[in-house]
Amino acid sequence: MIARKDVKVAGGKLLRVEVEIESGSVIRASVCGDFFAHPEELFERAEEELAGVPADRLGETSLALFADPRFEIIGASPEDIARALMEAACAAQAD
């Protein structure tokens, strides 16, 4: 199942995530919205690394990946991203 979730984060910025879950694991996850991530390649790699993660570990895994000190996220926090991904994953599993 695929679920999309839009979340307003502190400061009124929009965070949009999409998660595809199959057999209890993440197949694909994407994060976009009114924020900037630098360097973008590292952010994209973090999204790719979510593939194969058990859905019930998505929150802690995504938090660890997006809190990587090698890049900067402006307009959202790693906690915002992890929360939005978990909410989408819960919605995908509920369908």
- What is the CATH superfamily classification? CO dehydrogenase flavoprotein, C-terminal domain
Q: Strand count, sense and closure of the main sheet?
A: 3 strands, antiparallel
Spans of at least 5 consecutive residues with low confidence = none
CATH-defined topology: Enolase-like, domain 1
CATH architecture heading: 2-Layer Sandwich
Question: How many structural domains in the coordinates?
Answer: 1
Roughly what percent helix?
A: 25-40%
Radius of gyration: 12 Å
- The arrangement of helices and strands along the chain is EEEEHHEH
Portion of residues in beta strands equals: 25-35%
Secondary-structure map with pairings?
Elements: E1 2-8, E2 14-22, E3 25-33, E4 36-38, H1 40-49, H2 58-66, E5 72-74, H3 78-94
Antiparallel strand pairs: 1-2, 2-3, 4-5
Helix pairs in contact: 2-3
Characterization of this structure:
- With 95 residues, the protein is an alpha+beta fold.
- It has a single domain, classed as Enolase-like, domain 1.
- The chain is 38% helix and 33% strand.
- The chain has a three-stranded antiparallel sheet.
- α2 packs antiparallel against α3 (78-94).
- The longest helix is centred in the C-terminal third of the chain and has 17 residues, at 78-94.
- The mean pLDDT is 92.
Can I get a quick summary?
By secondary structure, the chain is an alpha+beta fold. The chain is built from three helices and five strands. The chain starts with a strand and ends with a helix.
